[in-house]
Amino acid sequence: MQHSNPIDDHAMAADTLAGITTLPELWHWRVEQSPDKQAYRHFDAGSGRWASFCWREIDLVVGRWRRALAAEGFAQGERVAILMPNGIAHLAIDQAALSLGLVPVPMHAVDNADSIAYILADSGARLLLVDSDTRWDEIAAVGEALPDLRRIVCADRQTTSPTGDPRLIDLEAWLKAAGDATPPGTRIAIAPHDLAAIVYTSGTTGRPKGVMLSHDNIVSNLKAIHQRLAADTDDVFLSFLPLSHTFERTAGYYYPIAIGACVAYARSVKQLSEDLVEVRPTILISVPRIYERIYSVIMHHRAIANPLERVLLDLTIAIGGRRFDAQHGRGTRLSAFDRIAWPLLQRLVAAKLLARFGGRLHVAVSGGAPIAEPVVRLFLALGLEVLQGYGMTETSPVVSVNTPDDNDPRTVGRALPGIEVRIGDNDELMVRGPNVMLGYWHRPEETARTREADGWLHTGDQARIDSGRITITGRIKDILVTSTGEKIAPADLETAILTDPLFEQAIVIGENRPFLTAIVVLNANGWAEQQARLAAHGQRGTEAEAASLLRHIARAVKAYPSYATPKAVHWTLEPWTVQEGLITPTLKNKRPAIERSFAKEIEAIYAKRSSASRPSAIVRS
Predict the structure, then answer these.
(1) Residue 123 main-chain phi, psi, to 5 deg
(2) d(Cα 509, Cα 584) in Å, to the nearest integer?
């Protein structure tokens, strides 16, 4: 993806997309530009093989969906809800809806039924595409009145629904019923400021809000991304982040259309490691958790490796880190030993580790949440360009990103072309540009509080800007204030804790409390090994286990002040899930929900201790 003359490439990219103002225009233009080039790949469970579509073929698929959707007779601007995993069906109904002037409402395929029912009611969706009738039964059981919903299309309808709902129809029957009633080539007038989606925020603290994004919001963001990170038609994306997330919709779905790249749909997150090796993507769009998991695997292997393997890995990371810093004008010049040793270390160590990503990965973009510096530094040292960026649903979503030739992993890069940033009151990052949302669906008062009359958006994130580079320093609402008056950003601590492979998930609490407590989900294998080591040294019982966990936590957060080190811990082996309502579809902690779930355990910890002088814990879950 790196080009010999990035300035010329960026200029050409801007010129190529300059005349496009809506997403349907973008689709039709791409099909005309490269009709026979591979566009999409997906795993066909029936044949057990990967199947592919060129742009001409996928356009015929979209045309079939368009005819079926047009036969429903919905008015322009009405909403179409999509509750499907990433794949051809999700893409087809999204493009069909956009071409008819309808508004997609993407939802996370594994979100809990209560949240889905709320979104359907709040958006006034007229049609729902759902993966199965069983899933629909779960939603119907919530009891939410959905008077606007006229059609429910089930991709996999195994049985007659117990609800006896006449709106239900099998997907294939729905597609066949339309026949050739509406020519797929018929164009509908769509303006740049028309709605292109209502994307519901993750809702970490309450009910999700519907963010209204226009065609201009999204297309302008695509153009700005392409000027900053010009990919090309030979690139391959592996799509696994949910298409209900604006980060994936813009960067992993619409952007590949703009550049004519191929998108392969991963089978599942569980099979991601296999799919990376089989698909061999060149570009990866991901949240930090995926990089953290691979980092944990590497660090675990280091811990059990023989002395020679450990020395080689440490040497690779050290020299690779110096190479990265030297390439970006930071640090000292490389020594003669570094220059001689690197080709061998790259072949023996770095290339083998990066083979986990398929071996062709040029750029890996990390967004959606902060990524710990040790994690990103490891991959940069191995030679993988991990580019941290910043954005939010309300900004379509990308505001800033590092680039391969200008990468400072301590920051989230510089603002994209056409986007203004400044620091407001309380060090809040403010954003203005054509990518800023129209507002919140049916929430004018909240829109007015978030977006000022002159277009400046309140992000809610604290930041600083140095020489154009943006560094996010915390979340205004998430700052914990202990009873001793110390202010702490829990997300930073949680990110640091997760660099230890023993921990799968973590949350830090302590608002109005005398000290911090960590609630963690442990890696089952790692915890079994840890318990065996404790037993070998004659250390048994809850208190010994708690002390051991707190030592791990203290090492992970050693860069923070002593008052920011958790003094108590509660642990479990049961992962927090979206279905339980404990994390968002983008894997962020739902802090109030987790605190409610562990309320008794939290109260027991603080009731047990009047000071933070000794490690504390309660019996693990």
Answers:
(1) -80, -15
(2) 18
Ranges of CATH 3.40.50.980 domains, the chain:
6-285
CATH tag, 6-285:
3.40.50.980
C-alpha pair distances (Å), 14 with each of 3, 71, 223, 448: 16, 37, 6, 33
Strands 127-132, 151-156: pairing kind: parallel
Burial (CB count within 10 angstroms: exposed 0-12, middle 13-18, buried 19+), residue 121: middle
pLDDT along the chain (621 residues), means of 10: 38 69 97 97 93 97 96 97 97 98 94 91 98 94 95 85 78 89 67 97 73 98 93 95 94 97 95 95 92 89 93 97 94 91 97 94 90 93 96 97 95 97 96 98 96 96 96 84 78 89 94 91 92 83 88 90 88 92 83 91 81 44 49
Residue spans in the chain of domains classed CATH 3.40.50.12780: 287-477
Token pair, residue 297, equals 């695997």
- The pLDDT value given to residue 206: 62
Q: What was the pLDDT predicted at 23?
A: 98
Structure-token match 């809506």, residue found: 22
The residue type of 146 is: L
**CATH 3.30.300.30: which residues of the chain?**
479-608
557: which 2 tokens? Answer: 């957060």
Q: CB atoms < 10 A from the CB of 48, how many? A: 7
Identify the sign of the CA torsion 284, 290, 294, 296.
positive
Report d(CA 108, CA 82) in Å as an integer.
8
At 127, the amino acid letter reads L
Note the pLDDT of residue 287.
87
Containing 284, the helix (H) or strand (E) segment is strand 283-286
Cβ proximity of 72 and 152 under 8 Å: no
Q: Quick one: pLDDT at residue 179? A: 78
pLDDT at 609: 63
How many residues are recorded in the chain?
Answer: 621
Q: Which residues pair with 570 in a beta bridge?
A: 519
Give the C-alpha separation, 562 to 148, whole Å: 55
Residue pair 605/567 in contact (Cβ under 8 Å)? The answer is no
CA pseudo-torsion sign 275, 279, 283, 285 = negative
CA distance 399 to 457: 11
Q: Which fold has domain 479-608?
A: GMP Synthetase; Chain A, domain 3 (3.30.300)
CATH hierarchy code of domain 287-477: 3.40.50.12780
Q: In what order do the strands lie in the sheet with 168-170?
A: 103-106, 79-83, 127-132, 151-156, 168-170
> For residue 556, what are the contacts with CB-CB under 8 A and spacing of at least 6?
496, 497, 498, 499, 500, 503
Rounded Cα distance, 219 and 20, in Å: 8
Q: How far is CA 403 from CA 66, 253, 423, 434, in A?
A: 38, 20, 23, 22
CA 2 – CA 16 distance, rounded (Å) = 19
